[in-house]
């Protein structure tokens, strides 16, 4: 009995706040659950409407997918480059690390509020710099439908880059120096050492980064909510923002529950597919994966 | 994930090991390129923050969109903007900060107590069903809570907790799967002999937990506390869903709400922004060891 007493907090929490709601959410997704109105069973109607007759649903999928495709590769590459720089043993490296890790503790809201002004279409700092560099018509960023998502990606990158750099840096420092020493004795140059030692041995870290950055991209909310909140229409209505609007602004909890189930399903599929591909390209040193 | 927290001395400072590379001209060129890259990246972090501080210190009606941009405060020093943002009757950030702190006290304490309690038997006891429970905990770690926010809202609403802090506080007392996992991995690295010696001396399981395991798990608990604090301070979605009165707002909600205010003054907006980030920046400098060590070890292979 004793162990279960210690586990009690989690057991209660899982029942009331996790597993219970997961089941309830699935049930709700088959109803027209609405705040105040009587609830009716509608079968698969919510899903049918979503797939065939909901422009906003598809639009939010499109925006979210665009964000994933745009931000994840940049995030992975820039994070690695920053970590490679921060891994150099040069004087003052500690100060550089402290500076570059700082934005990763700031809230999405704080970062969004700052960048909303920096990326202001008229006199924003970024556009002022761009004009001085000779760009005659810099983008209007958040207010231009074509640039709104890239703008959110820039803001996101600034906020999470430090996080990625720390994770990569830990991975880099896990690589045994003897590997490099052996390669140098064999006459391998810096470039060969990078491609044949650093990258293969870093693949578990790259895999982890890929996983968390894709999951993170599906959950963009704070930045888009702060900057736009759905006020200016479709161009920033990310999936989670749309889900929030349907559920809490429009009060259509049944339909929002169906949207949640789709989020859960898509998230699970992405994770499973990634896990499946890892045998092909992720190299674990101890051979168990 | 490795059982221990990654040694962070390597990430925070330079290693003392000398490299057996012959000094030559290309090495100097390489260092120069490294510094160039590091300075460029640092500028991308420092300049926006400097600009924010500058704007926060400008008087009302002064143009903040100057060319060239004001990267650092040189001209205006209106420190009273911070006081104005703190006590603005429409958006009193002093109150928002107090509200957030109130929530933090319960969430951090509750999360530490519950995660440690739940992790203890999973790490240090043998019993039937242990592996099943652990597997379920790992599985629930993969569920994004945003996918559960709709049914959770229905549950909290039925409990009559809508419009109170309870939906933000109570779940912390049931442990978070992620930190249970993290602390459990750490507790497993504590030598078994310590428990056995204590048992021979007549200590019960709770005494072993309280006086041996808990003190020895301090580094993992510190990581858990720091990240719980940050996550709560920076959380927007939870408070946006459950708080409906202005005087209950947290710093994050107040700040997000300030953006939509008509005729907003950028200097006060930036002052408010700086006020809300001061606690996390202080935490960053005080607990850098735990923060960076925590992120680094969470990034290790799972």
Characterization of the model:
The complex is a heterodimer of chains A (289) and B (302). By secondary structure, chain A is mostly helical. Chain A is built from 12 helices and no strands. Chain A has helices spanning 2-28, 45-53, 55-86, 93-101, 108-118, 125-132, 148-173, 177-185, 190-218, 222-227, 239-249, 253-281. Chain A is globular. The model of chain A has no long low-confidence stretch (mean pLDDT 91). By secondary structure, chain B is mostly helical. Chain B has a domain at 93-192 and 221-298: MetI-like (MetI-like fold), CATH 1.10.3720. In chain B, 66% of the residues lie in helices and 0% in strands. Chain B is built from 15 helices and no strands. The termini of chain B are close together. Mean pLDDT of chain B is 88; it is low at 1-10 and 13-21. Classes of the chains: A mainly alpha (289), B mainly alpha (302).
Describe this structure in a few short sentences.
The complex is a heterodimer of chains A (289) and B (302). With 289 residues, chain A is an all-alpha fold.
Mind describing the biggest β-sheet of chain A?
Answer: none
Question: Oligomerization state of this entry?
Answer: heterodimer
Structural class of chain A: mainly alpha
DSSP, total strands of chain A: 0
The CATH homologous superfamily name of the domain at 93-192 and 221-298 in chain B equals: MetI-like
Cα shape of chain A: globular
Order of helices and strands of chain B: HHHHHHHHHHHHHHH
Helix fraction of chain B by DSSP (H/I, runs of at least 4): 55-70%
- Total separate domains of chain A: 1
């Amino acid at each position: 009995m004793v162990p279960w007493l210690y586990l009690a907090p989690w057991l209660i929490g899982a029942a009331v706040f996790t597993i219970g709601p997961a089941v309830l959410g699935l049930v709700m997704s088959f109803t027209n659950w609405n705040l105040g109105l009587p609830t009716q069973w509608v079968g698969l109607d919510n899903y049918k409407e979503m797939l065939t007759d909901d422009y906003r649903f598809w639009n939010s999928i499109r925006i979210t997918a665009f964000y994933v495709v745009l931000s994840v590769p940049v995030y992975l590459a820039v994070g690695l480059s920053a970590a490679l720089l921060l891994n150099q043993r040069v004087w003052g490296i500690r100060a550089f690390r402290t500076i570059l890790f700082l934005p990763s503790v700031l809230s999405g809201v704080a970062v969004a509020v700052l960048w909303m002004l920096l990326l202001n279409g008229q006199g924003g700092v970024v556009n002022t710099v761009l004009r001085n560099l000779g760009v005659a018509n810099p983008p209007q960023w958040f207010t231009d439908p074509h640039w709104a998502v890239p703008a959110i990606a820039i803001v996101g990158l600034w906020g999470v880059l430090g996080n990625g750099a720390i994770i990569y840096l830990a991975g880099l420092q896990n690589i045994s120096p003897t590997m490099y020493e052996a390669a140098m004795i064999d006459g391998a140059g810096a470039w060969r050492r990078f491609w044949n030692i650093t990258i293969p041995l870093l693949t578990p870290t790259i895999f982890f980064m890929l996983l968390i950055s894709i999951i993170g991209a599906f959950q963009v909310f704070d930045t888009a909510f702060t900057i736009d909140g759905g006020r200016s229409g479709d161009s920033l209505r990310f999936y989670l923002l749309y889900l929030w609007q349907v559920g809490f602004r429009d009060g259509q909890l049944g339909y929002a529950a169906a949207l949640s189930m789709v989020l859960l399903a898509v998230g699970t599929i992405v994770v499973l597919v990634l896990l499946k591909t890892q045998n092909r390209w992720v190299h674990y040193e101890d051979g168990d994966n | 994930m490795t059982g221990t927290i990654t040694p962070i001395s390597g990430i925070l400072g330079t290693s003392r090991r000398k490299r057996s590379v012959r000094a030559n001209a290309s090495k100097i060129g390489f260092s120069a390129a490294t510094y160039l890259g590091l300075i460029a990246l640092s500028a991308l972090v420092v300049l926006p923050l400097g600009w924010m501080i500058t704007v926060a210190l400008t008087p009302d009606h002064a143009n903040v969109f100057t060319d060239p941009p004001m990267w650092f405060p040189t001209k205006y020093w209106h420190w009273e903007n911070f006081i104005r943002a703190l006590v603005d009757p429409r958006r009193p950030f002093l109150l928002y900060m107090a509200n957030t702190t109130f929530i933090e006290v319960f969430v951090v304490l509750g999360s530490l107590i519950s995660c440690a309690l739940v992790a203890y038997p999973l790490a240090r006891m043998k019993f039937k069903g242990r592996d099943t429970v652990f597997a379920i905990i790992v599985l629930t770690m993969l569920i994004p809570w945003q996918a559960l926010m709709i049914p959770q809202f229905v549950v909290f609403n039925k409990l009559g907790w809508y419009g109170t802090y309870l939906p933000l506080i109570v779940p912390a007392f049931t442990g978070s799967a992620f930190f249970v996992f993290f602390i459990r991995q750490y507790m497993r690295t504590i030598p078994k002999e310590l428990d056995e010696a204590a048992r021979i001396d007549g200590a019960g399981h709770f005494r072993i937990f309280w006086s041996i395991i808990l003190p020895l798990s301090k580094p993992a608990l510190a990581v858990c506390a720091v990240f719980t604090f940050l996550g709560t301070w920076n959380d927007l979605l939870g408070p946006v869903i459950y708080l409906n009165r202005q005087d209950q707002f947290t710093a994050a909600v107040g700040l997000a709400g300030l953006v939509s205010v008509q005729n907003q003054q950028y200097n006060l907006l930036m002052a408010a922004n700086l006020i809300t980030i001061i606690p996390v920046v202080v935490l960053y400098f005080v607990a850098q060891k735990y923060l960076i060590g925590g992120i680094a070890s969470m990034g290790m292979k799972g």
